[in-house]
Amino acid sequence: MTKRDLISPTDLNRDELENLLALAGRIKAKGTAPLLAGRTLGLLFFDPSLRTRVSFDVAITQLGGHCIQIDADREIYDLEPQEQVVMDGPAEEHVKDAARTLSRYVDVLGVRHLSKTGDWERDGQDLLLRSYAKHATVPVINLESTQHHPCQAFADMMTMQENLIRTQGRKLTLAWSNHPEPKSLGATHSVALTAATMGMDITLAYPLGFELDPEVMEDARRQAEQAGGTVRVINDLAEAADGCDVLYARSWGSHRYWGDPEREAMVKRSLQSWRVDRSIMARTNNAIFMHPLPVRRNVVATDNVLDGERSVIYDQAENRVHVQKALLVQLLK
Ligand code: CP
């Protein structure tokens, strides 16, 4: 049987996504039997995490299985993802050997790796993650990469369904927000693709220079068209908020300044008004407010929005557990 990996949200078609979300809903409502007793999940974190690492550990433990977490940046060897190279640089081990070895120990493998060489062409390929997926003989789950964060997007879609009843044709504004650091595009790309698959009307709001990856945009437009939704871009936060049902804030880095964080920080000094406050929320259709966390309070969004009655940020975090239980059951059944 061929193994399934989850690298991008579009690795699941709409039917598969709807089945996953339905199973996650049943698990949330009724709990689960220990369906994965004796199974082991390995998690490799090359970057920090609170929600992803804890929610996956909780998910597999409550399913009767076991989790091994590795701080991959500190605890394992430097890895080489390129094929057929002479390994006389700093890398001590090839991903092929690490992935094949780990596949003998664990039943499913999660990898978080945000590539930061400063070269967008290279970082945007998610080389290390894709090399793990290529060489592991067990399923590989993307725990957030430079390009994608599918588990976050699926939990977010579950949260939208809980609040909107139906998502088809509802208006999602995915709004860039200010942040002192250049953040990955993973969550933004994956939320846009997932919402497109579910037929939502998506408004992407960002200042010039903070465009999404062109291939992801093309894919999102194609998915939306197939599902009866739309994708548009507006370079003004207030205008983009008008009449939306969901306001999702998230910062992401610019391809234009990818290798030059100081220049990006300088550009962002004039973009501090890209922050969600009550006046922005007042323009929406009584929208729910979403953010994947961690969040810089009063930079990305004000306290009264984050703590307001339309904020669902902790439901998003909780739903990671339910969606990931459903995912693990489906990948390992
Ligand atoms: N949203 C999210 O993935 O959180 P962590 O970075 O804490 O895992």
Protein described:
With 333 residues, this protein is of the alpha/beta class. The chain has 2 domains: 9-149 and 320-332, Rossmann fold; 152-316, Aspartate/ornithine carbamoyltransferase (Rossmann fold, 3-Layer(aba) Sandwich). 42% of the residues lie in helices and 16% in strands. The chain has helices at residues 14-30, 51-62, 72-75, 95-105, 120-123, 127-135, 150-164, 186-197, 214-227, 237-241, 261-268, 278-281, 303-306, 313-332; strands spanning 40-45, 66-71, 79-80, 93-94, 108-113, 140-145, 171-176, 201-205, 230-234, 246-250, 288-290. Strands 9-8-7-10-11 form a 5-stranded parallel sheet. Strands 2-1-5-6 form a 4-stranded parallel sheet, sandwiched between helices. It has a two-stranded parallel ribbon with strand order 3-4. Helix 1 (14-30) crosses helix 7, helix 1 packs across helix 14 and helix 2 (51-62) packs across helix 14. The longest helix is centred in the C-terminal third of the chain and has 20 residues, at 313-332. The mean pLDDT is 96. Bound molecules: phosphoric acid mono(formamide)ester. Phosphoric acid mono(formamide)ester (CP) binds at residues 49-52, 144, 152, 292-294. The site of phosphoric acid mono(formamide)ester has 9 residues, from helix 2.
